[in-house]
Design a protein that fits this description.
By secondary structure, the chain is an alpha+beta fold. The chain has seven helices and eight strands, in the order H-H-E-E-E-H-E-H-E-E-E-H-H-H-E. InterPro entries: Acyl_CoA_acyltransferase, GNAT_dom.
Amino acid sequence: MQWYEMLKEYFPEEEMKTKQHLNTLLAEKDHYYLDSSEQHVLLYAEFKTFIFVDYMYVRGTKRHKGVGKQLIHKLKQKGKPIILEAEPQDPNDADTSKRLRFYSREGFKEADSIQYTKHSLLTNERVNLDILYWDPSENETQLSIYTKMIQMYEEIHTFKEFEHYHDVHPRAHDVIHFVKQEHNLPS
């Protein structure tokens, strides 16, 4: 099975980019990468100061065998903060809980000061997503994560969007909001 079909099999349509959009990113953005095999797909952008995981999928028969952990550790070795979008926990979808537990075990935190409503140009639906991040220095603020999300959104999600969807996404500041100041709470 090809990498794009693997993604389509797993991710909801409203969270997908077209194959043409992804291929354009891979061909024209020198910091957008595909790592795939018969058991996984990882699409990510490596910026100067952070990494954005666009899609990560591990085939069902290979889950719980360390493949996802290996992929995340490969990215962690770059020593940069890692940011990703995740569906919020849904009691009717066990996969959301499993995914969030996996990222929590890997040291990811939720950027609860950031609200993000993704607008799908494929389905015209809006989906609320959580922003998760891993910070090797443990000095990253949520405001800094917000700034990185704005940069990623403008460079990745909206890249040549009209060419691929004959429409445009809302601008970054219309869908990504920094909603509150961080609290220094004891862990």
